[in-house]
Amino acid sequence: MLHKQHNKESKMIGTVSGGRLMQADKPKVLITGMFKGNYREDYLQPLDDIAGVEDISASDGEEELLKTKIKDADVLILGGVTLQANEVLFSQTDRLRAVVRWGKGFDNVDVDAATRHGVMVSIQGDFEICVAEAAVLLMLALSKKLMKQVHAAKNGIPVNDSFRGVNLSEKKLGIVGLGIIGIETARICQAIGMKVIAFDPYCEEQRAAALGVELVRFDALLDGSDFISISCNYTPETHHLFDKKAFELMKTSAFIVNTARGSIVDEAALTEALQSNAIAGAGLDVVEKEPIDTASPLLSMENVIITPHALAVTLDARRKVAEGVLDSTVRILQNKKPKHLVNPDVAVRNS
Question: For the segment 103-117, what is each residue's pLDDT rounded down to a tens digit?
Fold first, then answer.
């Protein structure tokens, strides 16, 4: 149990009245943007011993409520990808010491604004292997026409040649972003028998070569890949990296998989490419606007698999992330720097 592991550490923060801080003296932790479930009881219960904890996730008007509640918070635990921690939010408080992200990405946190306001930003994610597995899962499902096969089995539809898929073995995989997730994806796919190329302007050739991966230009990756897996960060530089021109350069037999961020792909251009058979199919665990509009034409396409940005959120990964969130929050409340700081130059602000 996590609370047993951290109980000793939690008491180090400062004790009054039998080892617990009096309620009036406790710092405040605000939780928002989280998924439904017992995550607080299962993972964050130790915080109740050392802080006043309030969870406004799934509350009506959560975004406006956050602007009000942030004034009294020392730490904001921020889940999801829709709520924004930005200049508007940070300007509401002089008290906030840190934003702790429940996840690896921080595209919904304005790090520059946080730094200006002296707010530390700590990311917590142990999803790398899970995301890589999710990317490979989508590739396998697309290559074997899994959804069509399942539909046929459930509805007694006879199998014909239109059900025939392709092998991953001996195909070429193009990875966009050769970070930890990209490396794990490459490792799995190499074991399957795929040749791996990658586009990453920030990766050294020697490092890629040691992994058995050939670095290529973006247009060469588009033109030469049978499968493309996106695992780069979302930045202004990668916004709509996959646009109409990119899809025109891809093979008509190629599949694209996105487990990174939806806005790396121009969804309108992707839809057009699929409708015109310019590419063979797509596997998306992320879309531009989440949740996806149920009227989206992508949902009715036989060669498209869409999941709700949850393929990598396994029980194992969630436990590890929770441990990281708890550890970082405790460190902050102890006036220490948390792990995985995005803006390490921000000074620790004492309570």
Answer: 888 889 999 999 999
- Looking at residue 7, its pLDDT comes to 43
Determine the residue type at 118: G
Q: How many residues does the chain have?
A: 351
Task: Note the CATH architecture for domain 2-126+314-333.
Answer: 3-Layer(aba) Sandwich (3.40)
187 is catalytic: no
261 is catalytic: yes
In the set 97, 309, 318, 331, the catalytic residue is 309
Q: Are 2-126+314-333 and 128-306 the same fold in CATH?
A: yes
Question: Helix (H, G, I), strand (E, B), or coil: what is residue 136?
Answer: helix
Residue 19 has pLDDT above 90, yes or no: no
Catalytic residue among 101, 261, 318, 331: 261
Set 290, 319, 340, 349: catalytic member: 290
pTM check: above 0.70:
yes
Q: Rg (Cα) of the chain, in Å, rounded? A: 23
Residue 97 a catalytic site member: no
CATH classification number, 128-306, choose in 3.30.413.10, 3.40.50.970, 3.10.129.10, 3.40.50.720: 3.40.50.720
